[in-house]
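Q: Convert this sequence to structure tokens.
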Amino acid sequence: MKRTTIFLMVVVLLLQVVVGCESNKATEQVQTKQHADFTFEVKPETFEVFVERDGVKEIASEPILARKVTNVQKGEQEIAWSYPDDQLDVSIKKKEDHLQITLTSTGTGSFSWPAVKGASYMLPLGEGKWVPADDSKWQSFLKEESLSFAESFSMRFFAVNKSKYALMYVVDNLFNNTVDFSVDPTIAFTFAHEFPTINPDKTYGFRLYVTDNDPVSVAGVYKQYVKEQGELLPLAEKAKAKANPSIEKLYGAPHFYLWNKSFLSVNDVKWNALKTKLNANFIGALEQILASNGVDGKESIQQFREIQKQDYVADFQKKAILSGLNYALCSREFYNLQLFPQVSEEAKKSFGKGIDTLTDSQLYDLNKKVLKSVLQDVVPPVEQWGNADSTDLLKEMKAAGIDQAWIGLPNWTAAYMKPAFIQEANETGYLIASYDSYHSIHQEENPDWNTAIFKDKSLYENATITKKNGEKKAGFLQQGRLLNPTLSLPSVKQRMDEIMSNDVAFNSWFIDVDAAGDFNDDYSPQHTTTEAEDMKAKLARMDYIRDEKNLVIGSETGNDFASRSIAFAHGIETPVIKWADPDMRKNKQSPYYVGGYWSPAGEIPERYAKQVPIKEEYRQVYIDPVYSLPLYKLVYNNAVITSHHWEWGSLKIKGEVGTRMLKELLYNVPPLYHLDKKMWDAEQELIMNYLKVWSPFHKKAVQQEMTDYRVLSEDRLVQKSVYGDDLQVIVNFSQQDFTYEGQVMKARSALIIDGNDKQTFLAPAQ
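A:
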């Protein structure tokens, strides 16, 4: 029947639209139940949505400021209307098991909806968090906080716990969204979407589900959604589909960053005899090379001269001298036939080809032989340089019982310094990767930040991201600029071809940022790019490295838009903790100062090696198991292997090492360590006592889905996870024993039940 204008106005002003339907039956899934038998009501003026199930009515979205409404159209299972002043159309349709809510801009640049409020929330912040709305520490942390949805939420949903059930929003459009929190009187938040002028897609929306009020149900709903989208790809299928069975080397593998960034280590040099080999001509040649190394170069030169006056070499002098030698050994100006007449015929032959024709690994090999000709018996044969922190360390790890491991290098030059180390890792059965990044680009070259250096020098002006206001977007730490990923692939190919031509047998690769959800709109007229195109380009370059170079790919964070591309990720389990806190980042006198990036030659930087306590205000938010939920694992346990961010490795937080071990077992998370010979000697017993339990457990659990998760005690400190049909791990984080199904669980322990086999792990007191 045709509606008149008057009738429309009456509908808008007086009616509360009620749309209800019942499906024939609820959709049953593994470990979860989606509720299709709910009704809903809508108030278009204030965009309130109410849901009722089993006689319990809840508000799904809080009222916004009342607006003028036109074009109301309703049917038995749907309603649509327009906000003429906002230039926005809204459509809500009842599907079999959810509401489909779509908002379309007809001119507005942004809109905020829904505004949600509940007793608590289940949010995929990192691995997952339970956030009580009235919790003071969460309120303090989230006060006036605005989070990028794509970056901060590892999966595309949020869930609100109501009295009898949960309301779960699955986000249709990943891009240009923020989540804005308020905390007065309790935590609530609003979802805001921008409609960029450069983006032709003028819609965003949600699927609204009603589900049981627990994380297993919520994750189960989302997992089914991911499957429907064709986005769930288990590790076993990745290994088969990409013809890369090396993915299986991740099963049961702890993750290590090894710090062998120097040619010579302190134990390679006979220090008392060193000055007898250093003549004025050699030091003069070094001085010319080290002049380009700033303050560090000046310090090295000074110490080369100082030790000539001494009958000893102090530790700080050893570090400065090694730093200078290691810097010079990377230089294409190091070799001089007049200065080094003693060099071997083999080295002279290499030099005869022309320095510029040598690959980096060939250059380093030549320079090592040249330096050996000067230092002679003060240093061992070049093949043995740096062995303690590289090949020898690998042999010790293998002998200790580490059969599988993922090993990362801080950058690929470490491999050029000692290609035999990479080969040794392969032969040991380990995965070996380099850190890489295509995020920032610098105009001035810095060899210590070689990921920001590109052969194509036109990229800095012609391929960097422009903000809406016309300014260039700065790179990491506000240095350089951001490279537009849609223009990066030729440089990715060039870099990877060059690296792999250096006789280094990498079988894995780690790419910073690409899986972290850091998307950008580029307003450059010459290469306008949307966030969606940015994401596709990042996935494309990861896929290229994976497929064309046959490498096991990992990336930072591992948000689930990248789940089909990557095999592992660092950062979801423990992200970077409160980046802006000056006590942690700037105040070197603070007990919480995490340390700097710089390190003396051959040492692990403080940022990774120094153990620091965590501020109590952050402990609850970031690492307290009471507030953690395995949401990501309940969806992706057998599809993406996730660990900690490299700044927050398993041993980083003082007083929390044991708790993090227990949580790694509960959540099936690989421990992540930073190692050199010194750290290995100090921590080997602790690491190996843990890995004897963790590795066989992970090897089995990672090949199965996480099928259940339960909180077993009122204080939430006893929890259980289930993998597959019968592999269980129960963890008692508390300081008191706990009885579970007739068995006493010791305080601070994990009980692993595999069929009829049981094993207990007691966390160390640190």
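The chain has three domains: 38-231, 236-260+388-708, 271-383.
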